[in-house]
Amino acid sequence: MPEMSTDVDGPLLDVRNLKIHIKSFEGLAEIIDDVCFNLNKKEVIALVGETGCGKSLTAKAILGVLPSNAEVVGGEVLYKGVDLLKLSEHDWRSYRGKELSMIPQNPMVSLNPLLTVGEQLMDLICLQDQPEIALLPYYIRRKKLKKEKKAYDKAIKILEDVALKPAERVMRSYPFQISGGMAQRVCIAMALLGNPSLLVADEPGTSLDVTISKVILDLLEQKIRDLGLSVIFITHNLAVARRISQRILVMYAGNVVEVCDSDKIFAEPLHPYTIGLKKAIPTLIQKEMISIRGRVPSYINPPRGCRFNTRCDRVMDICKLEKPKLVNLEGNHLVACHLYNRR
Amino acid sequence: MTYNIVEVKNLKKYFFLKKGVLGTASGVIKAVDDVSFTIERGKNLGVVGESGSGKTTLGKTIMRLYDPTEGEIWLDGVEISKLKGYELKKVRRRMQMVFQDPASSLNPRRDVRSIITAPLDIHGVGTKKERLARAKELLNNVELSEDYLYRRPANLSGGEKQRVSIARALALNPDVVVLDEPTSSLDVSVQAKILTLLADLQKKLKLTYILITHDLSVVRNVTDNTIVMYHGRLVERSTTDNVFNDPLHPYTQTLLSSLPVIFDEELALLPKAKPLPDTSARQTDATQGCPFFDRCPEKIGERCLREELRMLEVKRDHYVSCAKYY
Fold first, then answer.
1. What residues of chain A, 202 to 261, have a C-beta less than 8 Å from chain B?
2. Dihedral of the CA atoms A97, A101, A107, A109 (nearest 10)?
3. Any domain includes B125
4. CB distance from A313 to chain B under 8 Å?
5. CA-nearest residue of chain B to A207?
6. Residues A186 and A159 sit within 8 Å (Cβ to Cβ)
7. What range does the domain containing B310 cover?
């Protein structure tokens, strides 16, 4: 097992030049193309972008749970100085759930419909102490799993921690018997079970109503503060991203195109894509919504150079030849666009 | 003199739950309960509320896809809530619906031409040639090229499917179009395109939209009047400006204050957030009184449950059903 240095200066997570390809029927899709970002301790960053821009895939790569047809072709994911991409499944056991954890996209689908919430939670609690059986097939695992006496009380406690009351009733319920908001809370409870330091939250609350979604975000914010978590928050809702995160990373077609502090990014966006998004969002201030022309390019033969060049209003010759690098302008505002490179 | 194209009076739609082989009634769900409003020609109505509040049922009942349990629906001066057979079919040409999820409301085995011309076939409009010409015209209207005629839904993107759905709804030249969550499955940049398209079509074809959505910023930008629903009841009804600038019902205030926003200017427009008791399900069993009682941050006690609910004109053209104002 690679050594884990406990005290590392610099970012908690450092993603460098990550490239992921997916094999599909049509050919090789070059989805994630050179994604770089870092996450400091106790920082919340938001990955925003439209459907299919590679947000979730990036998160899955960080957690080492990529689908079988995806392949990492380059880059590093350094967590406390250890390259996660090189970990074996065996080594992953001491990371997944304990160091890194994830709140899945759709809480209703992520819970097992055949088991009660309580059974799932208690399994998870017992598994924490018996990681060696974690990779066995499910039914064998359940047979081998040693039941812990305290598991029930512990499960009740963590449900109460996420404000699920009455916890006993939730424990007895099957996932279809609880509401979407409650399922989301259960998933949050599960993700926080092993006291992780890095949490990846994939669109929490988006499938819920605004009022419920707000309560869930409040809960999550409070947990992040209390536990001192570092969070990668994935969402397509720019308003939610602005609310919860300190920094926003805008992704387009597998690239990070702009990084900026959350409260500044929409006041003065620099990348033409972010500017386009700003114009397209409906707001409470009545204004004309202007969409971005064209559509997201195919990943099988992505445009050369900047991937936004087919839709950009300010496209130049160099955009079609050379890929822009993410450069730091003033005050932690990073942009990948040739318009700003010339300076 | 204003002219109301749609008038809904005390509309109710109850679903009766049945149990066992004999189908004995075991309960009733009041999906739409005593809803009244009017729509002027060319003025869009936004229907807002959380999921399960009866928005879609209201839309479908107005379309007569459900038979109303009680109440009246007037379309352009004709009472349509009890029409049947041929009479109903005639009226249906004047109102069409764009369904919630374009991915599942388009038949995957039919091509775009046959999807768009289906309403023409059903109502026996034109010859085969004319129908094809009309299909091309409609595709042109929704800004798709003629190449799309023989594609199937599986080969269309989310935005394109939504355009085909809209084209199908427009095939019979309706006056009223019910749009059920037209953009909720789309990304922001595509959403902007569809909303612009809908606005253009409205100008061109003199349509009236009933926009059902949970996205408040879309309602703000597209509609003239807004109704807010909660548990099948109407809680607030007014012009969109009034509802957003001066929400009177505690539920509307809660809804607006929990809206995440992007720009600082927007934040100033929202009412101050009040703590929201965290229950979605109703706990008190009382069938009478305010459905929002359990979650209401401003309840005034017994009166909320005792008083008969009614819409009260609190300010000019601004109706609220809340015991606070009685």
1. 209-215, 217, 236-240, 242-243
2. -60
3. no
4. no
5. B51
6. yes
7. 4-94+174-325
Return the CATH number at B244.
3.40.50.300
Neighbours of B241 (CB within 10 A): 13
Query: Cα(A2)–Cα(B69) distance, rounded to whole angstroms?
Result: 69
Segment A114-126 mean pLDDT: 87
Q: Nearest CA to B238 among B315, B292, B324, B322?
A: B315
Contact A239 B187 (CB under 8 A): no
Candidates A242, A289, A293, A298, partner chain B, best to mutate (most B CBs within 10 A): A289
User: Residues A307-322: what's their mean pLDDT?
Assistant: 87
Q: Which residue has the tokens 């759905």?
A: B165
pTM value is: 0.82
Nearest-neighbour CA in chain B from A192: distance (Å):
21
Q: Is residue B122 assigned to a domain?
A: no
Question: Does the beta-carbon distance from B217 to A276 stay under 8 Å?
Answer: no
Mean per-residue pLDDT over chain B, rounded: 84
pLDDT tens string A167-199? 888 999 999 888 888 899 899 999 998 889 999
Instruction: Answer yes or no: is B164 within a domain.
Output: no
- Which chain A residue has the Cα nearest residue B278? A215
Q: Please count the structural domains in chain B.
A: 1
Residue of B nearest to A290 (CA): B192
Residue B140 lies in a domain: no
Give the pLDDT confidence of A240-267 residue by residue, as tens digits.
Answer: 898 889 999 999 988 999 999 988 888 8
For B234, list phi and psi in degrees, rounded to 5: -85, 130
CB contact under 8 A, B187 and A50: yes
Q: Return the percent helix, strand and coil in chain A, to nearest 5.
A: 35, 20, 45
Domain ranges in chain A are: 1-99+197-343, 107-195
Predicted pLDDT of residue B275: 59
Region of B280 please: left (phi>0), alpha (psi -120 to 50) or beta. Answer: alpha
To which CATH superfamily is domain A1-99+197-343 assigned? P-loop containing nucleotide triphosphate hydrolases (3.40.50.300)
Report the residue from B190, B214, B265 with minimal CB separation from A210: B214
Closest residue in B to A163 (Cα) is B278
